[in-house]
Amino acid sequence: MSTDSPHPDALSYDTQAVQVGIPRGNTLGVGIPIHQIAAFQFETLQDGATEFVTNATYSYARLQNPTVQALEERLTALEGGTATVALSSGQAATFTAILSVCRAGDHVVATSSLFGGSAGLLNNILPLMGITSTIVPNTPEAVQAAMQPGTRLVWAETIGNPAADIADIGAYARIAHEHGALLGIDNTWGGVGFLCRPLTHGADIVTHSLTKWAGGHGTVLGGSVTVGTHHDLSRNAIYTDGDPSLLTTRGPAALAWRQRWFGAHQLGMTLSAHSAFLIAQGLETLSLRLTRESQTALDLAQYLSAHDAVTGVAYPGLPASPHHALAQQYLHGGYGAVLTFEVPDPAPFLAALRVIRMAPNLGDTRTLVVHPWTTTHSRMPEPARRAAGVTPHTIRMSVGVEDASDLKRDLDQALQAGRAHATPHEAALI
Ligand SMILES: *Cc1c(COP(=O)(O)O)cnc(C)c1O
């Protein structure tokens, strides 16, 4: 099946989101079909032998499946990249991205406002393989100071979790490239190239938890790794060692090849066809959802900033935010759906919510809150939690597509309930 799109480069984001991955032709459906199939046929011995060398089409669905491939083409177009491998979760994508450029003895510099699972990989899993890391504040000066001769990768998130700080992607790219390293950006909060396209600012690798805004309805897990056009691997021994070297045999496709080889072929963190279908469908309305969610998030950030039962609000769309200037530089179409705020006594506030639900997810159509101190960030040592912008009073809210005035009313009545219960003693126990 050919999934070539007619003129992907000539089309805008919104058009690509609904068109890429769907071939035209008589008898073809208007949409991406689910190929619920594990293996693909060979007509001749030669066909099988050729496919096992080239992996050009399909043999076995751990390697490639037409539904997953259609999703990958759509993701590549929306991020402005050259190739994508879709995987079973965002966590699988981060692991694959790091392993694609690091091996034993290599080093990663990552910025501190990290998704908890990424910090876990860097602190607990990668050291088992001899890959070390330094986690630094989210500034070019701190990243520059942490670079070592063995640093192969700089890692940051477009919008930090949950402090809502913005990575200076252009500056990080320059620092990484000066040291012969690559820049990887977890662009989950950047909404698959809609709010931010890190590859256009110099990043080499972009990852996603497709579980969030891409799937968009809180119904599916997935992840992806997309590579850009230019990436210099001439100082990375993974690609230059050996005769012939990976760079010689695979050329400019070497990085994308290794990501598929590791993530899907070898480690088997493959995305299922059904999940790929759901995520491809989610992408079709991502820009509509994220536009609406960003507008509501800004509205709620302003509302909460003025509320006397709220002691602080972090949202990059607020002109008072210390990250507003970088947000204006790197984000377009909105400032994102996530805002963070501080309340004196979170327990009664959270228990009083009637519309907004408490659950550890992001990018759902429904507004979700979480108490990071006791959930998403609870395994981090206390100083690291505070460095990431998390206190016992922090609430993280991922805004959905509900009516903004319903959300305001719900927040207000819960904040009143929280105030009624708050005593200095209870607040201290949190
Ligand atoms: C959720 C998330 C991940 C991990 O993705 P999963 O799909 O849960 O494995 C990684 N990075 C960010 C920024 C996330 O929000």
UniProtKB/TrEMBL annotation:
It holds the Pfam family Cys_Met_Meta_PP. The keyword Transferase applies. GO terms for biological process: cysteine biosynthetic process from serine; L-homocysteine biosynthetic process; transsulfuration. Keywords: Pyridoxal phosphate, Transferase. GO terms for molecular function: cysteine synthase activity; O-acetylhomoserine aminocarboxypropyltransferase activity; pyridoxal phosphate binding. Gene3D superfamilies: Aspartate Aminotransferase, domain 1, Type I PLP-dependent aspartate aminotransferase-like (Major domain). Belongs to the trans-sulfuration enzymes family. This is O-acetylhomoserine (Thiol)-lyase/O-acetylserine (Thiol)-lyase.
